[in-house]
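Dear colleague,

Thank you for sharing your sequence with our group. We've completed the structure prediction you requested, and as agreed, I am returning the results in plain text so they can be pasted directly into your records. Please verify that the sequence below matches your submission; if there's any discrepancy, let me know and we will rerun it promptly.
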Amino acid sequence: MAARPRFTSRATVLVLVLCSLVAILAYPTRQFISQRSEITAQRARADHAREQVEQLRREKARWQDPEYVKAQARTRLHYAMPGETPYIAVDPAAQDPVKSSQGAPPPAQGPAAGTVKAARPWYASVWDSVDAAAAPPPPTAPAQPDPSSPPAPVPAGDSPSHDH
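Please find the predicted structure tokens below.
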């Protein structure tokens, strides 16, 4: 009996067809998978944008309420109604440099640090910036010539005149 070849021509053709199908379908499959992940990311972004729009709509509706506007003007701009006496409570420990240097915790970092600045009215910081812009720059000392360097040459026409 004759020995059968390990791979017949049919098996070889079948393997070639399968390999070519895998090669042909690999790129579209990869594109399909990447597009599906892009679609998912875009949907997540769209949902986030919808949430932001809803939040902004709610905030806009709050600003339509005159009582809310009054409350914001009182807290943010330190406004007071006619006849009221506004008071601003200042923490003495925050302004005492002696106490802060003697073992007190360092100033807060992050969102809580902005609350100390917010206690000042906005117009005070504007006025401070105007004052700083109007102030003349500090005088600078004239540069001293280096004693080891030779004196600067005097141009020929600019020699000092000696009137005797």
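Summary note from our side: The two ends are 140 Å apart (CA to CA).

Kind regards,
the structure core
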